[in-house]
Amino acid sequence: MTPIAVFDLGKTNSKLFVVSADGVIVDEARTRPVWREEEGLRILDDAALFDWMRGELRRVVAEHGVGRMCFSGHGCTFALTAGGRLLHPVLDYEQEPPADIAARIDPLAPDFSETFSPPLPLGLNYARHILWLGERQPDLLARTQAILAYPQFWGWKFTGRAVSEVSYLGCHSNLWAPLKDDFSSLVDRMGWRKKMPAFAPAGSVIGSHRVVLNDGSLRDVAVHNGVHDSNSALYFYRSLGFSDFTLVSTGTWVIVFNPASPLEALDPRRDMLANVTVDHRPVATIRFMGGREYEVASGGWNRPVGEAAIASVIAKRAFALPSFAAGGPVPGHEGRFVGPTVEGEEKAAAALLYVTLMTDLSLDLMGSGNTIVIDGGLVKTGLYAALLAALRPGQTVHTSGNPEGSAFGAAALVFDALGRNPFVNDCATAGAAAIAGLSDYRQEWRRRVEEMRGDLSGQREERQA
Fold this sequence. Notes:
With 465 residues, the protein is an alpha+beta fold.
């Protein structure tokens, strides 16, 4: 079997991984997507990203004999196409529609009990951004032939074939009704069902892309349908043999999946929702923008944080409080530091404690009592898993030897379509950090957060009165 090229397409970083037939990364490359301003909107320079992808694909076909490719993609992003054209540039989901437009389009959202998508700001419910574009250009949706999710947009770019995929549509889009396993009432009210292409399973072959090598020879690369990135990570760990477990998928977002949690326990006011797995099963989820919040709160610290810095912050009682980005289980507040001023590594330590405590809170809200598996970039901070293990002594915490679960999940889907599974479970058990005062620090942080939430509830009641 030839190696697989997986394009793992994040909001901030897009990556290519070449996965061998033995399930090993043999090559990788990275780029930063360009988001630019145009006519009052932030949009993706899709041509530049496509050029990079084609160039890297040509290189790895020549160097490694890659014969298959797939995509995993960050959530909340879509494309409107007709024929062979992109009708409108791809939007950055982190922009808010004007208040007058929001007042018209937000009441169109289906009830949470139907979509299990909480009402979110910006374009985090991406149907909201579709409606916004329809308000900006009244004829745009009439001209649209296909509404494509982000991974499927790239599949279309490489093959010309438009398809849909359930894990992306089911990711807080307001376009999917998980219990019906069908499109939501919004799709039918807006007349969009006919614009939704036929479904293809994640990992299935949807076409091919011809690569012209530098010597003029031609190679055809099979293109497999893409997948939502965090759902891809969930699939990967299931493929390793984990069954009753909570996945903490970390990157720009920290997304916590707990299949054991009942959907009835979800609170839409706290960014709790149901995602949908690649095999159409709803799964209880909570999330916050942990990677982004760590970057902001730490001042861009990019080195591991040591125990001494953590211990110093705990002893000083310096706290970072929610929230440093939109969404999450403690919305409506601007992130801030309280207590003694911290700088440098200590500021990063306070930020790391904050993200760990937010994860811990999220796990409690999800009723997580089973095994925990941590995937993704926050493992590189050094103590995230050890701190979480110390806060949750009743649960075993595993970390992956490979932090690229979303890319490996996409590769696993391709292997699965071919009847193979070369991956070996190399997850390690995280030892609990032994740092004095951590439990008391957590208790004080929780008390402060609950006071903040109480203040916000009181403000709401005053406005309603």
